[in-house]
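re: the backbone from monday

yeah here it is again, tokenized this time
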């Protein structure tokens, strides 16, 4: 049997990995705002949807115990497609909020499980050379899916609003399109994904033994040097972004009467979903390049400044309320570029903290703290904004940047970590 080219499945697999995450975390924000939900309710409900990614390490060992990773990938894509169809079906109905949230929850848990299986399958379906070669490809298609989701799909929904003159029907059609796309992914990957001999349920281990192993790795995680400083960094480094992320999106599309910029969904798709994502990607690439050249310690403070100071653009936007789309694009690009550059320090520190025994499991726990760092501030960000208004809210975000500087100052990092070493 001929080996199936990784080009046939790696790009589509990681496109499919990103899209439901974007639907849950970003597209849902815009949809609920267009359907008339308050900022406080939107941020509270959608922040809870981070929970599956927070607790993902709890059930990831059992994915290995039951069925193959290939089976999990295909099954979760079918389930995600069904959840997308469920969102589309409930939007026009009388129980649109309860129904859509239930299906978003199903989508979130399915997507988190898909992440576990896909990342594991990547290492089984490719040899070490192919893994290194395709790591950039998979990241690229993950970003493309993000632009496609919060850029093109949101723009499509906005254009459908103009054509149909019906907000609910327009967003329903867009989610039906996404459901059809995932059915196509399910069919394609069911056919094209290879069947590695190593991809089989874990033999010789019971669920109890796996759970005991998880408890051991959990205990050793909290026995690491600088554990307090490390966990505080994981939780508070992105505190300003945790407050800003959801409210900034709502600010862009909120009406001018409410203090927002009043962008249409199509304009939002261009500004945040396309221009902003390009800035985020370029910032991340640059961050990786300089950190690999000089090490994390050398670039930590420039990255701290990059992830905090550009948030000032929202203070300007909230007070000036510019009508020029070019000005808004430039501001969002600068903020997202700075975030991408500064986020490199965060991701590198997670790798640094995870070094040693059980590094894979410890990294999974780090990513749980990463999701928690966005979930907690996001839950009350909307209520805070509604109580003080957009201008004061963005000033509070700038004040929260002090936490980023405090927790970063407590880190002790090997100067050589991250540098490229000669073989």
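seq for it, each position gets an aa:
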């Amino acid at each position: 049997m001929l080996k199936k080219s990784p080009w046939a499945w790696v790009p589509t697999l990681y496109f499919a990995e990103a899209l439901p995450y974007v639907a849950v975390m970003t597209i849902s924000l815009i949809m609920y705002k267009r359907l008339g939900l308050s900022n406080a309710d939107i941020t509270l409900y959608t922040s809870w949807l981070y929970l599956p990614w927070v607790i993902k390490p709890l059930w990831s060992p059992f994915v290995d115990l039951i069925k193959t990773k290939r089976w999990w990938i295909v099954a979760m894509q079918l389930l995600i497609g069904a959840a997308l169809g469920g969102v589309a079906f409930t939007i026009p109905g009388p129980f649109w909020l309860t129904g859509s949230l239930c299906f978003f929850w199903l989508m979130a848990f399915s997507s988190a499980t898909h992440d576990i299986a896909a990342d594991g399958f990547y290492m089984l379906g490719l040899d070490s050379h192919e893994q290194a070669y395709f790591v950039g490809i998979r990241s690229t298609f993950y970003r493309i899916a993000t632009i496609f989701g919060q850029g093109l799909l949101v723009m499509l929904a906005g254009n459908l609003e103009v054509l149909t003159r019906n907000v609910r029907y327009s967003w329903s059609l867009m989610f039906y399109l996404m459901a059809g796309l995932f059915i196509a992914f399910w069919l394609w990957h069911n056919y094209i994904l290879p069947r590695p001999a190593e991809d089989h349920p874990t033999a010789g281990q019971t669920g109890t033994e796996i759970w005991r192993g998880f408890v051991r790795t959990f205990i050793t995680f909290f026995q690491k040097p600088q554990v307090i400083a490390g966990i505080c960094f994981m939780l508070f480094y992105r505190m300003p972004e945790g407050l800003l992320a959801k409210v900034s999106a709502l600010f862009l599309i909120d009406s001018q009467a409410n203090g927002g910029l009043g962008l249409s969904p199509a304009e939002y798709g261009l500004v945040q979903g396309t221009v902003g994502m390009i800035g985020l990607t370029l910032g991340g690439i640059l961050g990786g390049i300089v950190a690999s050249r000089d090490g994390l310690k050398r670039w930590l403070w420039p990255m701290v400044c990059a992830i905090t100071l550009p948030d000032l653009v929202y203070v300007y936007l909230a007070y000036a309320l510019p009508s020029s789309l070019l000005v808004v694009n430039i501001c969002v690009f600068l903020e997202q570029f700075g975030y991408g550059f500064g986020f490199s320090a965060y991701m590198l520190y997670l790798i640094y903290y995870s070094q040693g025994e059980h590094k894979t499991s410890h990294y999974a726990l780090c990513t749980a703290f990463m999701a928690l760092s966005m979930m907690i501030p996001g839950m009350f960000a909307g209520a805070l904004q509604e109580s003080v208004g957009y201008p004061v809210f963005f000033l509070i975000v700038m004040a929260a940047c002090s936490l980023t500087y405090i927790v970063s100052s407590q880190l002790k990092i090997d100067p050589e970590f991250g540098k490229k070493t000669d073989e």
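The radius of gyration is 21 Å. Residues 73 and 114 are 5 Å apart (CA to CA).
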